């Protein structure tokens, strides 16, 4: 069974079992709605969850979310989860519109420019106003490509390729 990250538990809030989480999902209204099931993992790399929980409530708060979980009504119930990761099962992923994709689907795709393979997508960095795709290249440093329509021209999941136009001076 495959699981995908949706949030990191960064802290507790108050005494009533609230958790502050940083969302990694494009669908927070779905992932954190009342009744939604989430799995708690100690780390992102763990293979199995330590616990399945149900969201009781959630609200957006200063760029993150404050959530409460069913049956956990005090700080003593949730403090042990600080630093852990919330994930969903693959079956819980949303269907996406044409031309959209999940980040996990692009990792490992070949990157081509002018019909020449220049590398493979190694990871995606999401720290600024737009994502940055890290391209591993043979015998060269990694190439950092901003996810902009003028740079990332086409993503073809069926063919396993990403067509790009590397701006002058970026390489």
List keywords for this structure.
171 residues, Elongation Factor Tu (Ef-tu), domain 3, SH3 type barrels, six-stranded mixed sheet, 3 helices, 12 strands, 7% helix
Structure write-up:
The chain is mostly beta strands and 171 residues long. It folds into two domains: 89 residues, Beta Barrel (Elongation Factor Tu (Ef-tu), domain 3); 62 residues, SH3 type barrels, CATH 2.30.30. 7% of the residues lie in helices and 44% in strands. The chain is built from three helices and twelve strands, in the order ββαβββαβαββββββ. The strands form two sheets. The protein has a six-stranded antiparallel beta barrel with strand order 1-2-5-4-3-6. Strands 10-9-8-7-12-11 form a six-stranded mixed beta sheet, with no helix packed on it. Strand 9 and strand 10 form a beta hairpin. The mean pLDDT is 89.
In short:
The chain has 171 residues and is mainly β. The protein contains 3 helices and 12 strands.
Secondary structure topology:
Layout: E1 3-13, E2 18-23, H1 28-31, E3 37-41, E4 51-61, E5 64-69, H2 75-78, E6 85-89, H3 103-106, E7 110-113, E8 116-125, E9 132-136, E10 143-146, E11 152-156, E12 161-164
Parallel strand pairs: 7-12
Antiparallel strand pairs: 1-2, 1-6, 2-5, 3-4, 3-6, 4-5, 7-8, 8-9, 9-10, 11-12
């Amino acid at each position: 069974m495959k699981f995908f990250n949706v949030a990191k538990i960064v802290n507790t809030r108050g005494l009533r079992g609230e958790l502050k989480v940083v969302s990694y999902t494009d669908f927070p209204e779905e992932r954190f709605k009342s009744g939604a099931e989430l799995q708690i993992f100690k780390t992102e790399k763990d293979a199995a969850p330590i616990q399945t929980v149900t969201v009781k409530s959630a609200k957006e708060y200063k760029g993150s979310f404050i959530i409460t979980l069913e049956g956990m009504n005090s700080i003593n119930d949730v403090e042990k989860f600080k630093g852990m990761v919330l994930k969903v099962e693959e079956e819980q992923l949303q269907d996406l519109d044409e031309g959209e994709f999940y980040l996990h689907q692009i990792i490992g795709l070949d990157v081509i420019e002018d019909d020449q393979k220049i590398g493979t997508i190694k990871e995606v960095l999401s720290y600024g106003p737009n994502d940055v795709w890290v391209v591993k290249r043979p015998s060269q440093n990694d190439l950092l490509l901003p996810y902009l329509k003028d740079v990332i021209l086409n993503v073809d999941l069926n063919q396993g390729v990403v067509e790009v136009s590397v701006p002058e001076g970026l390489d």
